[in-house]
């Protein structure tokens, strides 16, 4: 059985509230789970202690049994210091599009021309 530590959504419309649960990966997101491990309230400020609450002993027990955390839970565990930080690499997301690159090149060329024009009269004096 493939176990996941993941978020199960609760709360009303536009007011999300999540339970952190250990569940079989084949079960629906808000469906059957094996154990509730904590809560996550994204509406609270990021520095609030109430935003993410986890029973670290139980989370560690599930991780030792082979449960895989989802990306969001893995980030929460990294912030809590339970998991080592992993390097994330998505180089295509950071690269501007073709038109933006062309605009940047044009802007750099104009700036270089302006710098040369500003230097030329200074050298003539």
Automatic annotation (TrEMBL):
<keyword id="KW-0689">Ribosomal protein</keyword>
<keyword id="KW-0687">Ribonucleoprotein</keyword>
<dbReference type="GO" id="GO:0005737">
    <property type="term" value="C:cytoplasm"/>
</dbReference>
<protein>
    <recommendedName>
        <fullName>Small ribosomal subunit protein bS16</fullName>
    </recommendedName>
</protein>
<dbReference type="GO" id="GO:0006412">
    <property type="term" value="P:translation"/>
</dbReference>
<feature type="compositionally biased region" description="Low complexity">
    <location>
        <begin position="111"/>
        <end position="125"/>
    </location>
</feature>
<dbReference type="InterPro" id="IPR023803">
    <property type="entry name" value="Ribosomal_bS16_dom_sf"/>
</dbReference>
<dbReference type="Pfam" id="PF00886">
    <property type="entry name" value="Ribosomal_S16"/>
</dbReference>
<dbReference type="GO" id="GO:0003735">
    <property type="term" value="F:structural constituent of ribosome"/>
</dbReference>
<dbReference type="GO" id="GO:0015935">
    <property type="term" value="C:small ribosomal subunit"/>
</dbReference>
<dbReference type="InterPro" id="IPR000307">
    <property type="entry name" value="Ribosomal_bS16"/>
</dbReference>
<comment type="similarity">
    <text>Belongs to the bacterial ribosomal protein bS16 family.</text>
</comment>
<feature type="region of interest" description="Disordered">
    <location>
        <begin position="82"/>
        <end position="125"/>
    </location>
</feature>
<feature type="compositionally biased region" description="Basic and acidic residues">
    <location>
        <begin position="99"/>
        <end position="110"/>
    </location>
</feature>
